[in-house]
């Protein structure tokens, strides 16, 4: 039995003593303890070594006091497992030297056996569960197929992912073949994460907001729906499709238990779109953690007031920024914990 199961209770729609809180990208560069390990080991070495992934995953639980741990890994381990080379270039971000552009390129990718290619993730999850010793739940995750396609085709980060969009708009059949391969891999990957011990899983569609409503349904949501359906009897799922506020109603209709929202939509409006049968997660502007602590305290109260008594998990509206002081992150978490509605 978990000692702190606030997150799972709220995902199930049950009454909880208070609002649970965690932060996207909470294991990362704003923590000096993470930076020590980052000096010594390469990024994928940190992901692939269960002891390191475990230590990094638990750091924010011990240092910041969040109500959930999220597996330390990256969404790009999936294209790696599918056969593409993925590098993480210092201060530049992800780089895939041989991206997918043509039918011929597609012969280089496969739907892999996830135990063979991603077994290190499941080993890390088992170790993390043992080390957490039931203190808080563990969140597993994967990228949404659309966001993964963005990197597989563009080959690197981008503000517009124009080449990925051009690929989908000019070679739609190829795009759908690739999206289905990513979906099949992701389903097996997330199912195995839950079997290894993940208590819930989040699907990160960081670039969902680059698509209009019809393209979002066609290139993203129809695949996310398959993933949510495949996990339905295993664990609650949270969909975070940044910027795709226009599709909150359709996302709620997938049966996902949680929907992440960013700070560009008000909690009231999100609730109106999503309905009452789903938990909302978010939506503090990550840059506001750079404000003085009293401002953070005031703004967190305003956010919680705005979400009201509905199903809510407090979080940022996107990942924490590397330049956030540790006490500001802690002030965010403490303000949620100390909130009196
Ligand atoms: O130390 C370093 O410099 C590496 C930075 C880093 C970290 C800490 C990367 C590279 N990935 C991660 C870990 C990570 N990535 C987690 C760990 C768990 C946690 O939240 O604490 C998670 C959930 C991710 C997910 C991820 N990776 C997303 C989706 C969430 C989001 O922030 O939008 C995306 C888009 C990525 C790709 C990626 N990996 C790394 C970077 C810098 C990026 C983004 C690059 C870009 O902007 O295109």
Describe this structure in words.
This protein is of the alpha/beta class and 341 residues long. The protein has a single domain, classed as TIM Barrel (Alpha-Beta Barrel). The chain is built from 15 helices and nine strands. The strands form two sheets. It has a seven-stranded parallel beta sheet, with helices on both faces. Strand 7, helix 13 and strand 8 form a beta-alpha-beta unit. Helix 8 crosses helix 9, helix 8 packs across helix 10 and helix 14 runs parallel beside helix 15. The longest helix has 25 residues. It is globular, with a radius of gyration of 19 Å. The structure holds coproporphyrinogen I. Coproporphyrinogen I binds next to strand 3.
Describe the structure using short key phrases:
binds coproporphyrinogen I; alpha/beta; TIM Barrel; 7-stranded parallel sheet; 11% strand; two-stranded antiparallel sheet; 341 residues
What topology does this entry show?
Blueprint: H1 6-12, H2 32-40, H3 43-48, H4 50-63, E1 69-70, H5 77-81, E2 87-89, E3 93-95, H6 103-106, H7 114-132, E4 138-143, H8 145-154, H9 162-170, H10 172-196, E5 200-205, H11 213-231, E6 237-241, H12 248-252, E7 258-260, H13 267-274, E8 279-284, H14 293-307, E9 312-316, H15 326-337
Parallel strand pairs: 1-4, 4-5, 5-6, 6-7, 7-8, 8-9
Antiparallel strand pairs: 2-3
The structure holds coproporphyrinogen I.
């Amino acid at each position: 039995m978990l000692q702190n199961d606030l997150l799972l209770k709220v995902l199930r729609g049950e009454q909880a003593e208070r609002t649970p809180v965690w932060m996207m990208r909470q294991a990362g560069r704003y923590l000096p303890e993470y930076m020590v390990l980052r000096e010594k080991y390469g990024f994928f070495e940190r992901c692939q070594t269960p002891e390191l992934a475990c230590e990094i995953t638990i750091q924010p639980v011990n240092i910041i006091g969040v109500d959930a741990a999220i597996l330390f890994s990256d969404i790009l381990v999936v294209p790696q497992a599918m056969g593409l080379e993925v590098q993480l270039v210092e201060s530049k971000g992800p780089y895939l030297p041989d991206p997918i552009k043509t039918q011929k390129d597609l012969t280089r990718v496969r739907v892999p056996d996830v135990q063979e290619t991603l077994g290190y993730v499941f080993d890390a999850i088992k170790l993390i569960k043992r080390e957490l010793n039931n203190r808080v739940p563990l969140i597993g995750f994967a990228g949404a197929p659309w966001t993964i396609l963005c990197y597989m085709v563009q080959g690197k980060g981008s503000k517009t992912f124009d080449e990925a969009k051009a690929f989908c708009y000019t070679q739609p059949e190829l795009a759908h073949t690739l999206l289905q391969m990513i979906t099949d891999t992701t389903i097996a990957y997330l199912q195995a994460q839950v079997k290894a011990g993940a208590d819930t899983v989040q699907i990160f569609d960081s670039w969902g907001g680059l698509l209009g409503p019809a393209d979002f349904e066609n290139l993203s949501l129809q695949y996310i729906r398959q993933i949510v359906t495949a996990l339905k009897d295993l664990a609650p799922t949270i969909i975070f499709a940044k910027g795709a506020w226009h599709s909150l109603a359709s996302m709620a209709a997938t049966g996902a238990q949680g929907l992440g929202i960013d700070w560009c939509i008000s909690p009231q409006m999100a609730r109106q779109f999503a309905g009452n049968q789903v938990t909302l997660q978010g939506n503090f502007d990550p840059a506001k953690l750079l404000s003085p602590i009293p401002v953070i305290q005031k703004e967190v109260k305003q956010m919680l007031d705005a979400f009201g008594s509905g199903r809510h998990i407090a979080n940022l509206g996107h990942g924490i920024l590397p330049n956030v002081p540790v006490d500001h992150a802690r002030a965010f978490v403490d303000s949620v914990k100390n909130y009196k509605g």
